[in-house]
Amino acid sequence: MDDQQRLRYSRHLLLNEFGEEAQQRLLDAHALVIGAGGLGSAALMYLASSGMGRITVCDGDKVDLTNLQRQVVHRQESIGKPKAGSAAATLKGINPDIRIEALEERAGPERLAALVRTADVVLDCSDNFATRHALNRACVAARKPLVSGAGIRFDGQVAVFDARAADAPCYHCLFGEGEDLEPTRCAVMGVFAPVVGIIGATQAAEAMKLIAGVGATLAGRLLLLDALAMSWREVRIPRDPHCPVCSTR
Ligand SMILES: [Zn+2]
């Protein structure tokens, strides 16, 4: 780290539990963020400001006026532009010290698998089950930690699936594909803006802890937020011994 970096990240360096070694690990790491919507907005901005050295953001959508209520990485002038590029522009403004790659595409299973192999940590900030399951498969296959988030109405959830551990559950153990209903979409259901911010920021925190090797992560635990009551609930995620994704690896 040079002097400018030491200043920029000084409030991390002051943390006894974090410090220079952890900051250097962040600077050397590559985070893959799938989705630059509400969850991705918060996650991306904290990853960038914190000094995640390389960030790949992938999203095939364009910024719409209805997004701006909660997708805080985008600006009014970005309406009609691709979300990935819009997010990357904001992140470069926050921290020119890091490398940001914008992929303006909706990645399918094979593309996701290739992207996951290049990353050190993966954040699922997507809004559909097909992507969530494909991303989970890719993370299990490549043994990469996955930080999964979701938010709708006043409800949020966040969990870590760390496939580096042999006995770790995966996303499929929790939400089997047979049970899939197309997720209740923001377009018809509504979403209380700060919910996706709270969950996205939590995803960033977990991703950073996973990279830095700091603290106890959410691995194997699901946190459920009820923002109307402002209460959190924690559920242990059991591994499904018959899970078709993680039991055969
Ligand atoms: Zn599984």
Walkthrough of the structure:
It is globular and about 50 Å long. Helix 4 links the parallel strand 1 and strand 2. 39% of the residues lie in helices and 19% in strands. By secondary structure, the chain is an alpha/beta fold. The model has no long low-confidence stretch (mean pLDDT 95). Helix 6 packs across helix 7. An eight-stranded mixed beta sheet has the order 3-2-1-4-5-6-7-8, with helices on both faces. It contains ten helices and eight strands. Bound molecules: zinc ion (ZN). The site of zinc ion has 8 residues, from helix 8. Zinc ion (ZN) binds next to helix 8.
Summarize it.
By secondary structure, the chain is of the alpha/beta class.
Radius of gyration: 17 Å
Helix content: 25-40%
Low-confidence stretches: none
Mean of the pLDDT scores? 95
So what's the overall shape? globular
Find the structural class using helix and strand composition: alpha/beta
N- to C-terminal distance: 39 Å
